[in-house]
Amino acid sequence: PAFSSAQSRDINYHLHPYTNAVAHQKIGPRIIERGVGIYVYDEQGNKYLEAMAGLWSVAVGFGEPRLGEAAARQMRKLPYYHTFTHKSHAPSIELAEKLVGYTQGRMSRAFFTNSGSEANDTVVKLVWYYNNALGRAQKKKIIARQRGYHGVTVASASLTGLAANHRDFDLPLPQMKHTSCPHFYRQGRPGETEEDFATRMASDLEALILEEGPETVAAFIGEPVMGAGGVIIPPRTYWSKIQAVCRKYDLLIIADEVITGFGRLGTRFGSEAFGIEPDIMVLSKQITSSYQPLAAVLLSPEVTAVIADHSAALGTFGHGYTTSGHPVAAAVAIENLNIIDERGLVENAAATGAIMQAALLELAGHPLVGEVRGMGLIAGVELVADKESRRPFDPLGATGAAIYERAQENGLIVRGIQDTIAFCPPLIITPDQVADMVALFRKTLDEVHASMPG
Ligand code: PLP
Q1: What confidence tens digit (pLDDT) does each residue in 103-113 have?
Q2: Predicted ipTM of the assembly
Q3: Is residue 245 part of a domain?
Q4: pTM of the model
Q5: Fewer Cβ neighbours under 10 Å: the N or C end of the chain?
Q6: What domain range includes position 228?
Q7: DSSP per residue, 164-225
């Protein structure tokens, strides 16, 4: 194809995350120029309904002027200051207070980083520091899950349970272990009920803890609903059973709410939806609608007490970033969270989310569709070669990729996770826009189905 100047320069100078560099030279980038509401526009002026909110993150939609204004105000007043060694500033204080306030006493401190990966990296160090403070230096292993996603730093990629993040990087680190993925449609056994399956998931966790030695296992980390691993909704009682095992062996429970935080599941936090009582919560993405890079780690009063009070004995908590609690990012987060509250976007995620789930479920009879799953404003539609036997396509992922490409030609941005098509639109989406989104998807499914041999 003939590339535009921007496309050629991108190919020549820019190494992209999560991109095959050779394929990139052939395909070229789609250059997104601007965004309004749930839509983005490329440099040719093509309009796309952004059904993934970017990377699961633009809660208030694109082009929200209040966020630009909040950033500009803070830029003019104090564009930067750090939060090391007893320094602070109003935006970081207000944001920490606001986040703790949302948890209604469950959490008592916020630590700031720039990204979800750094936040999970911070969590690993906090867990290790915590156990050192308690004089149990051998209790350091962290159990995550196959298909879980927690980011890409050396420690957070080790928590992630996806081969692509381990292969070629000599990961995971030896302290990180992985237990079963709670995907009933794929992992459930013949004749097993969802309840039995949830019980089996908890026994798998217990078996792993016993195999490793409970005195060596410090924590369990999970996303309330898995996102990047394929939008996996666990059975209703999964989390309470997992939680009981964690409490039995004195494991900290870490809820990675980087996607589920701030309304995605129709509740402010995913933990509320599943009755999770985390010791540590991780927040990012929708915290600023990703208009600015920012993440937060929230600590329960018990963890705070150990970390804060024992730091006198252990010394300074030797961890933090130049831009931890960045004032501009924090000011944008505060304004963004105010918009989420004022516009009732958590409630909209529940109400419009129910409409989206019902509309996607109507596709369950489509010849390509194996499972439709979701909650609030997040969903996954898993495509299969054979509905009856649930046989996946071979090669896995080619159909998902074809849908992804064809959807873009139809003006719809989704995500293909192997052959699961993910939906995670901005929380401002309306019922009419949901109908448009699902109609574009149905059209795409039909076109790809019609082009298949046989
Ligand atoms: N945790 C979860 C649940 C995520 O979905 C992501 C990103 O998709 C991360 C952590 C990593 O965040 P970041 O890409 O900001 O490093």
Answers
A1: 999 999 999 99
A2: 0.99
A3: yes
A4: 0.98
A5: C
A6: 68-342
A7: HHHTTTT-S-TTEEEE----HHHHPPTT--HHHHHHHHHHHHHHHHHHH-GGGEEEEEE-SS
